Amino acid sequence: MKSKFIFLAFLMITGFACAQVQFEAKASKTKLGVNERLRIDFTMNEDGDNFNPPSFSNFTVVGGPNQSVSNSWINGKRSYSKTYSYFLAPKKRGNFTIGQAEITIEGNVYKTTPVDIEVTAAVDEPTDGNNSEYIASENLHLVAEISNTNPYLNEAITVVYKLYVSPRINVSDWRQIDNPKFSDFWSQNIDMQRLQVENGEYKGEPYRYVVLRKTVLYPQKTGKLDIEPLTLSVSVDVPGDRRDIFGNRFYETVDKTVAAGNRTINVKPLPAEGKPAGFTGAVGRNLSFRVTADKQELNATESLQAKVQVSGQGNLKLFDLPTLTVPASVEKYEPEYVEDVTTNLNGMQGSISNTYTLVPQAKGKYPIPPVSFSYFDLKSETYRTLTSDEILLNVNAAPAGQIAGASGSSNVVTQQVPSAASQFRYIKLNSDLTPIGQTPFIRSVLFWSLFALPLLLIPVAIFFGKRREAIAGDVKGNRIKKADRLARKYLSEAKRNLGDQKKFYESLERALHNYLKAKLHIQTSEMSKERIRELLSTRRVDANTVTQFIKLLESCEFARYTPASNVAMRQDYDKAVEVISEIDKQV
Known about the structure:
The protein folds into 4 domains: 11-125, Sandwich (Immunoglobulin-like); 134-267, Sandwich (Immunoglobulin-like); 283-405, Immunoglobulin-like, CATH 2.60.40.740; 475-586, no CATH class. The protein is of the alpha+beta class. β31 and β32 form a beta hairpin. The protein has 9 helices and 32 strands.
């Protein structure tokens, strides 16, 4: 009897001890969409060894295992908890079972109860429970704010990229992964001196935000155009479940990729009704137009400067100025194009001008006819035509000895007439000739010198001929000389601005565009990368050279908001010299 009593007591104590051990599996949700995630915790109230998780065959483990331990004493009683956490993403739809996990505690093996999970079709707003990545994604948003989603062709719109951050998380660092390529737009990034954190709201909740980039776009095509997203990699500090001895949460750093999302705008064509015959694509607000001359009274063969200028707000770099017409007796030289344009959130502002050098050839009064300029006014949504005043040039007689014509049909020759006493002064009446002497010219030193001179010139001619052939055969040297000439012609301004990043890349981009305008005879409004690629390919320029030219244009765009060293600017300049020379050779 005594032995039976001891055995019964041992069973009761063992059963009581076993009843105290708890090992269970808890899922954050048992029903979720295929695009959602769940968290499953395997929790025990006693420390164990040899933890063995289930296989998770129908799920992808996107996080874990994360281990957390809680051990505390309250009123002399010990409370202990140890948890292994996993974050799972379903691989497909269906009903699945998460199998049993195992743990060894004090020599005994404990198993959890299987958990049934139902995976449905994707939901509109996925949630991921307590996953750090989910917390980061819910509290971090990159937004592209577009000023106008229904603009006219060549009307300026702005895209402002803002990064919204919830007060619940912190951002420690960020970098750009993918920059949008505005292939159907003329684009200009606005310089950001420094980033400033501001307070605002996102979907009605308080957020902090920072403006990362401001870009001005001018659509070059009509219809629906896509604006590619800006993509960033952001290091986010997310509060975790663990706390320090003072009760403060430990933060976990998560690298989160965020994108601004694809945006689509609908570009309206300019109205066909009322379009003037001389319209060249100018679009803007309150543009002004004038033609001026630095002087209106001058002598024949003396030069003057006539300026054709458009000022105001609009697509100033994307249209051609009207041509100045002058009378036949006034010689006109190629104009000098000058841009004084700044870009802000309202678009381009400033002025562009062509300055002509004019030289009247004869005396008379010469009118420079009025010049008309047409543009589409965005304020009234109508076409407007501005006409300059007529400029009357009063040309006086040319200086003595030059020809000047009257305003009539006949020309008058104005020539200095000498007096009667001196009009034959140039005729020599008394000669000062001296005799040669008795020595005959034949067989003299001068005779033999002149006779031998052609023979002496033969080796000199051979030497220079070979040198000329060597120069002609030096293909590399000739290419370098030709490249230097092209560089001096198109890239002189860019070379002067080496060291000043903004001015250098603006002048480099302008030089590349001017070269294409001169070589391919295309307008500024056709300067999209696809159009340039198509035209160069049509002229049988090899693909590698075309790619290098496009990369140069992209470098000019990218360098507007990314710092560049003097070495990088020098490399871009040298590459521009090489590419222009190569295109010139092939075209």
